[in-house]
Amino acid sequence: MDGDRLPDEVVLSMVARQLSEATGKPWHVTDGMVRGSGSVGVVLGEDHTGSPGHLDLDFVLNVDRPEETTISDCVAGYGGTTEEAVDRAIQVWLGTTGSALLELLSQDGSFAGHFAPDAPDGFPGWHAIHGGVIGWGTGDDFLAVQHWAVDNPLLSRLAPVLEGTFDRDHLIGVKAFFGGGKDTEIAEIRVNGVRHQAASERLAGLDWPRTATGLSYARTFLLLVHNETA
């Protein structure tokens, strides 16, 4: 979309408002960061697209140890204005990535679901949290890919190509974004914010529905908390 990017302080205020509404607890902006209770914070990452509706968000579980406890992600929104697009982007991030991260803090199943290291639909050897699945598109079947993603958890399907590729044994964030229509298709896996080619190719080869008319997309986020075998 056209238009100027919103000032960082405005974006952070929008993130704080939505986090406060989602958790029922106050989040506030201070020193260029959205702060929650304790050591948790959210900062804006380096913009790598220039698009006013695109956000790079870093969720920091311990602001005193950001190198070890940061989960990075990016998200795009749409709308008639830049404000609407950014607001939508934050909603999508909060419903997928944010839900998994907030569940890591709450540990009570109120934001997302858990998979044990030996769960059939989980990631072997890792405790995992599966964030929400959000879908959008056009036409009668615009939620087809979202419904497929809900019924076909991705962790076990991606594990064979993800195992052994991580640079740490805790807090691995895996974003999946896929879908399309008759003449377009995308399937992307990002691990801690970086595209993972082999996992993206594996996702592209899965049997999620390809709609003949309209568009159907889904996005979800999988948090690998800790490698129990390390």
UniProtKB/TrEMBL annotation:
It holds the Pfam family DUF6348. InterPro entries: DUF6348. It comes from the Bacteria. This is DUF6348 family protein.
